[in-house]
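Render this sequence as a predicted structure.
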Amino acid sequence: MEMVFRKLPGQQHELLVRARKGPDVRLPAQADGPSMPHDLVHAVVETALGIGDGFWGAMERGATFQGFELVTPGRHRRSGLKVLRRDGDAVMAAELSVNWAYRVWRGLPTEGRGVGPAPLDAEALARTGPRLDAAAARWAAVPEGGELLWRWGSDR
């Protein structure tokens, strides 16, 4: 599966997802976040931690999340909903891990009211930090209107 992140004006991006079990989908303009698109963070952290049943694993198997649109209009089989019903708990667990890794990488508080227990240990964070650094540098180097191609399951 390939994800194509296109950098738009105003610290926004759009995303095309292709070569997956389901139809190609796109996510219209979204805010980048402080350092890179949230969905890119997911790809980096899920790959680094070997999470195959998180957000991107579900997308590869045909799930379509809110906000994504079909690239080619047509009938979309409801199989994407089946993937989410079956893998929903794993997708949520991945969301917690990704958010924690990103929080640590950004130097945000990891203790205190409302933070909760750490879902990742130091060894897992040691795998995610350098990969987030590399992805942020790659995204920063993309010119406005340019694209970053990311292949699911790799650091490229």
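Summary. The chain has a mean pLDDT of 89. Residues 79-106 form the longest helix (28 residues).
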